[in-house]
Structures are given as C-alpha cells and as structure tokens.
Design brief:
Blueprint: H1 18-41, H2 45-64, H3 66-79, H4 82-100, H5 103-127, H6 149-167, H7 172-195, H8 201-225, H9 243-247
Helix pairs in contact: 1-8, 3-7, 4-5, 4-6, 5-6, 5-8, 6-7, 6-8, 7-8
Length: 266
C-alpha cells in the first residue's frame, strides 16, 4: 500500500542582511555623487546655467531682505558651522564612553568624521571650483566651492548621531525630536549657503550626496565589525526554530549595545 508523503515544511523567510540592505542605497548614492562630480568638473553648461539662474535670484532676495540675511548668517556661522558640528560630535563621543562604555563606537565616530573632512577637502582641491562672485556680496567664504563643507559636515555628523541614538535604544520622543532637528539642520544649512551667495546649488547637493554616502558606508562597516549581540557579523539573527528547540532554550537576553563583550556569570 502506498503511503502518502508528508508535506514538506515551509521554508523560513530569508532575512535581508545589513550588508545587502545597505548595498542598494550606497550604490545609488555613489552613482549620483560620481555623476554630479563629473558634470561639475566638466563644467556642463546646462548645470552651470541652472546654478547661475538660481543663485542670481536668491542673491537679489538676500540683498533686499536684510533681516533674513542676518538670520542666515547667524545660523550658518554659529549654529550649523562645521566646527559646531564637530563639537557636537565630541560631546557624543564623551557620552558614548562615559555612559555606555562604547569606546569602539566613539573611536569609529571620530574616524568617520575625520575621513569625511579629508574627503571634502580633497575634492575641493581636486575640482577647484570658483565660488559665486557678486558686486554687492552679503557674505564671504574661503577655499573652493565644491562640495559644500557646511552641507557635507552636517549630513555626516547628524546622520551618524541619529544612527548611534537608534542603536543605543533612544526612546520614541527623543528619536523623533533628534530626527526633526537633523532634517531641519541639514536642509537649512544648505539653503543658507545658497541664500548668502557663497555656494552654487550643485555644491550643496554634492555635499548632501557625499555626506549621505559616507554615513551609509560607515554604518555598514560598524554593523559588520561590531554587530549587536544576537546578530552575527553578516547580520543574521536566526530564522524560525522548531518548538522542540525553543521550548528548552532559555530566553534570549536584551541586545547588548556596549562595544565590550558581556561578562559571563561566574
């Protein structure tokens, strides 16, 4: 007599590893950054015309709207200045070391910000794009134009700090507040640079794209080298287990977010 075959157990759903989930955004950002860099370096006429049209319009507004221009100078020179962002990064490093014993993450944060600054300055020197020149300037700036250092530094620092907050288990209220502040700051600093006539719009766009690329790449490296407890270096946390296995297994501890390995009970 023919016995019926038992139905095959359903296959567990494949989990997307952090490396795979970061690959697509990183590739998109890399292609967009490289394309914009090539167009700026080649002095592509349609891009230059668009930059000029936007900059001339905003400069006329900046000259006539003195109050807004003064506010933009305060914001860009003090609140969203690159050195203010680096100081905020330093505060975060102290917080990570003293409150969470996350020395590796603190060092990673410092190194990524330093690499982002070096990349920014290297591209400025390589492209050597001139800044806008006006007969009646409302502000001044030094060094080459592309990419915008203000926009790139704010994107790198605030993007990394958002990820660190999420990793350290920030509450919903703190997370939403930090996200809103970061979005307003990154957007606002780019707009002030164009409003004050010290950057072309494509300089700011380049700073945003390159800053986001640095953040995505740095987070992928961190998750690869220092995964949260319960996640292997490739990001897998394990699929569904059979009841016979999970019944006798002790409850899994909460994710350990310190960089030091958890101590075993004696």
């Amino acid at each position: 007599m023919r016995t019926p075959h038992a139905p095959a157990p359903p296959r567990p759903a494949r989990r997307r590893t952090p490396a795979r989930s970061a690959a697509a955004p990183a590739a998109i950002l890399a292609v967009a950054s490289a394309l914009l860099l090539a167009l700026v370096a080649a002095e592509w006429r349609p891009l230059l015309d668009l930059d000029g049209d936007i900059s001339r319009t905003t400069h006329r507004w900046a000259v006539t709207e003195g109050g807004l221009t003064r506010a933009a100078r305060v914001l860009t020179d003090w609140v969203w200045d690159p050195w203010t962002m680096r100081l905020l990064c330093g505060v975060a490093v102290i917080w990570l070391v003293t409150r969470h014993a996350a020395r590796w993450t603190a060092l990673w944060l410092v190194l990524v910000v330093a690499v982002g600054t070096a990349l920014q300055q290297g591209l400025k020197a390589a492209v050597d794009r001139e800044r806008p020149v006006w007969s009646d300037p409302v502000d001044t700036a030094h060094y080459a134009a592309f990419p915008s250092g203000h926009a790139m530094t704010a994107t790198v620092v605030l993007g990394l700090l958002l990820w660190v907050l999420r990793r350290q288990g920030a509450g919903p209220a703190l997370w939403r507040t930090a996200l809103a502040v970061a979005v307003v700051s990154v957007t606002g600093v780019g707009l002030t640079r164009v409003w004050l006539g010290v950057h072309w719009p494509s300089d700011v766009l380049g700073g945003w794209l390159l800053g986001a690329l640095v953040v995505v790449a740095a987070v992928a490296v961190h998750r690869r080298l220092r995964p949260v407890t319960g996640e292997d270096p490739r990001g897998r946390t394990g699929g569904p287990r059979s009841p016979s296995v999970t019944r006798n297994r002790p409850p899994r501890p909460e994710p350990f977010t310190s960089d030091d390995p958890p101590r075993r009970p004696r």
